[in-house]
Design goal:
This protein is mainly β.
């Protein structure tokens, strides 16, 4: 006779990224999608990746997975489901190829709910790892916004259009050391 423990509800982890089931991970699994270094298609274009937070989560760092080429400045922020900025970074030079770039933020608690991690690059020469499939991005609820400036909107973003780029690999961490 086999024992199968009752299934536990999905809970938060110290690091949550795009590929996690609390973000776009479930939508990307059936197609076997793989992330690859992808050019940022439009300068000053913001992309917002959804994250479902089931338990209180302390954000200490924001993460972007840079691609094979860096260029321009990166700006990141966390927005609530209505587009209000919760926490963000000061725009910084994109640095480090094919690696996570970590950004310290003011320690901020997120209450359970739907949030979006916004990512923006000021050029088209910078690359990020992304699931370059716009259908997957649209199915997962990734939005974009033509910002026209070198920083993400503050205090409010506009989730006007489903994105045509794909799904950038971003994340949040409750740990100081990654």
């Amino acid at each position: 006779m086999s024992f199968f423990p009752p299934s536990a509800p999905m809970r938060s982890f110290p690091v949550i990224t795009t590929a996690h089931p609390l973000s776009c991970g479930i939508a990307m699994r059936p197609g076997g999608a793989a992330a690859a270094s992808t050019a940022w298609a439009t300068a000053n274009q913001a992309r917002y990746v959804p994250f479902l937070i089931p338990d209180p989560f302390l954000v200490r760092k924001l993460l972007a997975y840079n691609g094979a080429t860096t260029g321009g400045n990166t700006d990141m922020g966390v927005y609530d489901e209505n587009g209000a900025e919760v926490v963000g970074i000061a725009a910084a030079a994109q640095s480090g190829t094919s690696a996570w770039q970590e950004f310290d933020v003011t320690d901020t608690w997120l209450v359970p709910g739907l949030y979006y991690v916004g990512l923006l690059n000021t050029t088209t020469t910078g690359t990020y790892y992304a699931y370059a499939n716009k259908e997957l991005g649209r199915m997962a609820g990734v939005f974009s916004q033509a910002v026209g400036a070198a920083t993400l909107p503050s205090p409010t973003a506009t989730f006007a259009a489903l994105d045509a780029y794909g799904v950038p690999v971003v994340g949040m961490s409750s740990r100081v050391l990654i």
